[in-house]
Amino acid sequence: MTSLLPLSVAVAEPEGLNRLPTPARPRVDPADVVVPDGYRVEVVLVGLSMPCGMGFADDGTLFVLEGGSTWPTRPYLPARILRLDPDGSLDVVTEEALGGPRHVAVHDGALLVSCKGGRNARIDRIELATGRQTVLVDGLPNGGWHEPGGPVFGPDGLMYFAQGSVSQQGVVLPQGFQVDVARHIGVHDVPGEDVVLTGNNVQTYDPTGPYPYLVETGPFKPFGTPAKRGEVVRGELKCSSGLWRAHPDGSEMELVAWGLRNPYGMVFGEDGELYVSDNDFEETGDRAIQGDPDRIWRIDAARTPHGSIDRPAWYGFPDVCGDGLPAWHTSHLPRRGRAAEPLLENPPPWAGPAMFLEEPHSAMTGLDVSRSESFGYRGRLFACEWGTLAPLNSPDPRDLEHGFRVLAVDPADGTSEPFMRNPRPGPASALGTGGLERPVDAKFAPDGSLYVLDFGVSRVMQETQMSYGHTGVLWRVVRDGSSS
Amino acid sequence: MNPPLLVEVDDATVHAHLDRVRPWLVTTRTLQSAYRKTLQETADQVSEPHIRAWLHEIAAPAERHEAAVADLHRAFGHEPESAGGTAGGMVPLVATVLGAARELVGEAQGLAAGARGRAWRHMRMLLLSNLDAMSGFAVAEQLGLALARPAVVDITFPIVAEKSRHQLLIRECFLEMAANAILYRRDM
Asked: What is the chain B residue with the closest CA to A429?
């Protein structure tokens, strides 16, 4: 473990937010953020590097996670867990390694932190009194692309957590090979139950060889390893695309569901149900899929008693889109890249439909629920949308504007309304304003106000994506009766 | 409401970070300058007409990339003239010494390996030299990303891409000349 670096923190001068020394995000201005009448936006922190998640203690102390190696994997800046006391002082609790902290729950005098890791994700426990660190859960297949979800605590007192798929598109492919193939040699998805393969493989090229040469790759196989028709791949407890529950010490881990592609946001609603956000397939590369909606699932199996699940619920990855249609359905045939073929013979029953469907490539991330009448919207889910990666992952010009906002979603009927957004679609850096860039997490404070964590600037072009350090912002939204 | 806090974006911290970038840009210039000199010399030594032409083709971009380091200084908010101070003024000398040292090492290693072709031994040095210089620009890009400076990335991204293509070309030339250099012990 590296020694902790001292944190440079200064109080912003009144005009300081209008002339920040970060040209990628030179200005942060609450007046450029639109919220409903009666609400006011404030700035709490400016200059965070790749913040990914946060969590409150009961006394109002906020823990903010800087993710280290994130999206894309570089630049890798310190993967710190910061502590913001109610009096406004900020310090560093600890620092994690490369693929750093993503989500945190404050529980029983400790921080329970999911870390992306590298080949495997894990959950750490950090004692707040002593700083002592132990690993509660390890070995969740990660491989570089998709993210951990949770931990969150259910009404049953159990810890719920998740880990997204290893591959982006159901098969390990050369697109973006520096994320997985180049650094995690041999990684592959792992099913949550025994599956029979159709024998459909993806024929593509190996970008890591001295000369790009053709390879065949099957699902649940390392890059370059084909599947055979009728082949059985055994399911494992520590699968990819899984969602589990366990006691708070990590014991008696049970697989609740699998087939979740990127279950970044998790929250128990006021109705006691577990809601999980999830991201769509990409329309690019050698298994391209058009128009897969982002979604929020209601995980019905989370209502069952601990230890009673014989067969985990399946939410579709790698063959079914968020709308319940197969990835090779006419409506999902790609406009660029090669179309998907079925990978699973006799797939498990689908656990959908989703509680909420959102536009493709909105990149739904962190979730929380309003639990107070004082803030309003009681019972609504506040869902962050990090925002599109088009044109990198979609040729559809409509996808260029999806995301970059916070939605209020009613889990009772699946309706939604934008709660926090820029006046026009897109990130502030593209609009030339001081507003939102990429909302990544939302959490309600014990005082009822809403904190929104903004990842910062991530520029996407046809050929690449670049994220900028020191451009992350923590916003706060209070209900004060003001009108815009 | 507590006042907003600046995390590592106060003037003092930002200036300290920017100051730490300067020596790396000087290093990048030195590496690119050494590569450019080695390239020019090697291109003139190669007698095989196709390979000679290919190497001369990438000589002009190498000069352009070397000059772009001054733009990088400006993108980080430095004045190029004073960017390296004494160190900056030493760049041509250091690059020459670095190129000469690499040449000596390449000669010794090549001869020890039984290869008689001088041009081929220099091709090997060129392969390593471009990789080194390319990494210099790529690291500058990471610093630009870390310090939220898109103007840096706008300079480095096309340079790293172009130098990556040049690296492939140099490798192909190096490999094509290998059998002649080692088995037939002749220069090309």
From this structure: B150
